[in-house]
Amino acid sequence: MLLVPLTLCALVPQDAFVHWETPHVTPLALTPDGTRLLAVNTPDQRLEVLALGSGRPTLLAAIPVGLDPVSVRARTDDEVWVVNHVSDSISIVSLAGARVVATLATDDEPADIVFAGTPERAFVTCSQANTVLVFDPADRHAPPVRIPLRGEDPRALAASPDGLHVYAAIFESGNRTTVIQAPLDDPSGPSGGINRGPLLTQTLQDIIGHEPFHWRGDRAGLEDFAGAFVSLLGDDAPLAGEAMQEFEDFLATIAFPPNPFRTLTNALPTHLELPGHYTTGRFAPAGQPLPAGNAARGAFLFSPPNLLDFGISACITCHTAPTGGGSTQHWNGAHFEPIAPGPRGERRVALVSVDGFENRTIKIPQLRNLHERTGLDLTQLESTAGFGYRLDGLRSSIAAFVANFLVASDQEVADLVALMLAFSGDTVAVGPLDRPLQPPGPPSRASHAAVGRQLTLAGAATPSEGALLGVLVAEAELEHVALVARGTKLGLARGWYYLGAGRWASDRALEEATSAELLALAATGAELTLTAVPTGTERRSGVDRDADGWFDRDELAAGSDPADPRSRPRHGHVPGGRRP
Description:
This protein is of the alpha+beta class and 580 residues long. It has helices at residues 228-231, 241-251, 295-301, 315-318, 398-402, 410-421, 463-477, 515-519, 538-542, 552-558; strands at 28-30, 36-41, 46-51, 58-64, 69-74, 79-84, 89-94, 99-105, 110-116, 121-126, 131-135, 145-148, 154-159, 166-170, 329-331, 336-338, 351-352, 362-363, 454-457, 482-489, 492-500, 503-506, 512-514, 528-533. It is globular.
């Protein structure tokens, strides 16, 4: 259908990217015949295919896949498998058709893929789940065989020359753990150069706007770490001025990925199995598996009226929602008001003077990545990590940490463990400003649990596919996520993004489709892939690859490059396109 022309330049600009800084594993591969180079374009969510000849490689195709592709392997000269780390999926690509023909769901954070065995199987590491999934390429609908690995963060894979053995490289576990104890404090600084021994590092994800830094909160801002580029990284001079500001601006863009323990609607789970989490000995004997946890019940235990420290605070008084870190506001006797900014305008969070272990000012740790630090548990004979929780890593497990507080049973321990695992996911603080035991927290750069979820249709949706699509559309209607679609129409590769109310904008600025019209395009040879993306990125991801305001199909029709914002149609406007 045709629409009334819109003045697109008057639209409010949107953030084009969400950065998760996902590491590559096998980002390059050759087809078996050696004629094409395959490369994952991670931030652009594409597989790029280049022809190899006697001269410079030439781009043949840029094929949309899932969110944050990190590995690629060619099974044949035509069939290529791409590992999408944030989408938790495998995109199976036809090079001849330059399109995704199937999408396979995986466990959390897949990392690499290799083909081996007779008959041939596809082996996929899932780094956060600590598993290897084994798929049958000849039967894509068959559920994979799941092999658990006793190690933290398996990533790269390799097969023996005869294809009889597959090897998985474990990123965070090894045969030995080396701890280097070194005084990192400046004797002239606020901490007096006291060697506190080995301390756990804190994540760089979403740290800007959560100053001050260091465990003691004795560094006002990132600028105070300029000297570390010399003393720790071996640079010739400290990072300063414009370069430091660019570094800070970059860090401010990094977000936490989707939380694998939340429901598809981003809710806290009410029944979460807790494999690898054990009783501490406070109630049942130590080392027994914890029961399933209710994170929603854990959130109740975390908040007033459940109090700690002789009734003067609750867990959430310090560990505010949605980050788990300190509040950016202080109590003035009647209500909360913002804490004064730092010396360079930093947005500051609250510190505590007593942390329960030592009488010393300490920064309240955020709680959004605790599920990535599991692996040590001293109730077991074997662990897969060498550090636990607390600033010095001495609490060996989440259960060991929460069991020190006011819990009445191992079930309550399990409920709090479930909450800690599912903590990341919300982005905006909610609640009134007049509750002294429940201060508002700073906003969080986190991702909705449905972000990245994909399905590829080759016809009418099955009941399970229809149910998944229904949830994604409902979340998109609420603007919790956005939806994009990639498929074929009249033999051309096309893109769409969801506008709401059953309407989809296409990659031609004056063309829309209804949901029924879009889904009717799905067929064998014209597969349709739908992907949930962060809200605000849908236009770039679906219809305007270079975010220059000219839609992709309009640019191709006009002879310009939709991947290059410097390349635009030569005339002021193209039929169906944008008026600059």
